[in-house]
């Protein structure tokens, strides 16, 4: 079986990563890559690493052409997918949105954080949140998947075993997360310029970040109760990677955290629970769809400390989208995603 695929918005970093992964997927045929600004330009002229692998040119988005594909990925600014997805879904196309248009169930909350009214509330209610480690069976049946954000993926997976097991107090969770500059996208911004980001390290969004409601929604689903979360993101001077340091106060300090995590993720192909005492590094997941997790109980106290790393462009975006596509279309979940991380 060959899957015909289209990418709407192929010139950003997540679009590039989708191109790289889908070009190497053994059961995918890339048919369409859209970009209004680069229309007519060969993909390899914009991204020379794809020369010899992607023999397509960018084209303007044409709904009729997109409707002829089995799956359409939206790697577009927030607000784009919700305008185009309804017609595609009604024509039987599977849709995966890498933006935030369908991630948050409460559309009032969504509008508050994204500054616009939602264009298709009915489809938003149907959309399935695409975190396979939590909702795999729902993803298999979905017509539309909301691909999780990069920070939300690391934070949710790190906290998941603690919340599902009722092992921590839910009112004082803390997520201290760091991201490389590619998380801000390809459009130049002053704070991501080399002279600004290099040799520098700073927090941002400390009083409120748009990923906060998405993270809280996922944690509350896992805990089956309200969750109090302090989330602080940081920009670090590297290109790729997220490191999330997570804190939760244990209800029973005697619990074997290592065993809890190993048991919860034993059958997950893209979650690697490291041996006791480990400290995962972002470079260990560069270019891969893997999340590596280590769990600690500092000084034998009542605090659970979880360390989680991922590549923000792969498991935090494009790789997870391909993982979701595999599930939606009945393919082996790991297909096209088993590449080894790049070192150094």
Automatic annotation (TrEMBL):
Compartments reported by the entry: Cytoplasm
EC code(s) of this entry: 1.2.1.38
Pathway(s) per entry: Amino-acid biosynthesis; L-arginine biosynthesis; N(2)-acetyl-L-ornithine from L-glutamate: step 3/4
Any one GO CC term of the record: cytoplasm
GO biological process: L-arginine biosynthetic process
Keywords assigned by UniProt, alphabetized: Amino-acid biosynthesis, Arginine biosynthesis, Cytoplasm, NADP, Oxidoreductase
Keyword field contains Oxidoreductase: yes
Main location: cytoplasm
GO MF term (any one): N-acetyl-gamma-glutamyl-phosphate reductase activity
A Pfam family assignment: Semialdhyde_dh
Active site: 150
SUPFAM superfamilies assigned: Glyceraldehyde-3-phosphate dehydrogenase-like, C-terminal domain, NAD(P)-binding Rossmann-fold domains
The reaction(s) this protein catalyses: N-acetyl-L-glutamate 5-semialdehyde + phosphate + NADP(+) = N-acetyl-L-glutamyl 5-phosphate + NADPH + H(+)
Keyword NADP set for record: yes
Domain Semialdehyde dehydrogenase NAD-binding: 4-142
PROSITE patterns associated with the record: ARGC (PS01224)
InterPro entries cross-referenced by the UniProt entry: AGPR, AGPR_AS, AGPR_dimerisation_dom, AGPR_type-1, NAD(P)-bd_dom_sf, Semialdehyde_DH_NAD-bd
Family according to the record: Belongs to the NAGSA dehydrogenase family. Type 1 subfamily.
Function, in words: Catalyzes the NADPH-dependent reduction of N-acetyl-5-glutamyl phosphate to yield N-acetyl-L-glutamate 5-semialdehyde.
HAMAP family: ArgC_type1 (MF_00150)
Name of this protein: N-acetyl-gamma-glutamyl-phosphate reductase
UniProt organism field: Spiribacter aquaticus
Organism lineage: Bacteria, Pseudomonadati, Pseudomonadota, Gammaproteobacteria, Chromatiales
Gene name in the database record: argC
């Amino acid at each position: 079986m060959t899957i015909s695929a289209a990418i709407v918005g192929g010139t950003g970093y997540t679009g590039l990563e989708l191109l790289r992964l889908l070009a190497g997927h053994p059961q995918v045929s890339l048919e369409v890559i859209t970009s209004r600004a680069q229309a007519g330009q060969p993909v390899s002229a914009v991204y020379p690493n794809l020369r010899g692998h992607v023999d397509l040119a960018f084209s303007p988005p044409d709904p009729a052409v997109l409707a002829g594909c089995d799956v359409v990925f939206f790697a577009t600014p927030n607000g784009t997918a919700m305008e185009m997805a309804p017609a595609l879904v009604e024509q039987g196309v599977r849709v995966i949105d890498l933006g935030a248009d369908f991630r948050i169930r409460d559309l009032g909350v969504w509008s508050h954080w994204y500054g616009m009214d939602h264009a298709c509330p009915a489809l938003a209610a149907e959309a399935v949140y695409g975190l396979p480690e939590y909702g795999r069976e729902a993803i298999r049946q979905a017509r539309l998947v909301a691909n999780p954000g990069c920070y939300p993926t690391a934070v949710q997976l790190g906290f998941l075993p603690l919340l599902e097991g009722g092992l921590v107090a839910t009112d004082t969770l803390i997520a201290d997360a760091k991201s490389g500059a590619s998380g801000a996208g390809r459009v130049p911004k002053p704070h991501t310029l080399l002279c600004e980001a290099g040799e520098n390290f700073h927090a941002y969004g400390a009083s409120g970040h748009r990923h906060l409601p998405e993270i809280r929604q996922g944690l509350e689903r896992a805990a089956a109760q309200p969750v109090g979360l302090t989330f602080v993101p940081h920009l670090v001077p590297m290109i790729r990677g997220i490191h999330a340091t997570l804190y939760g106060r244990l209800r029973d300090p005697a619990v074997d955290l290592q065993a809890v995590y190993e048991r919860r993720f034993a059958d997950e192909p893209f979650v690697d629970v490291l041996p006791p005492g480990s400290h995962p590094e972002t470079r260990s997941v560069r270019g891969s769809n893997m999340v590596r997790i280590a769990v600690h109980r500092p000084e034998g106290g009542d605090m659970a400390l979880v360390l989680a790393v991922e590549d923000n462009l792969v498991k935090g975006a494009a790789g997870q989208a391909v993982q979701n596509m595999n599930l939606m279309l009945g393919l082996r979940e790991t297909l096209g995603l088993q590449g080894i991380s790049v070192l150094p």
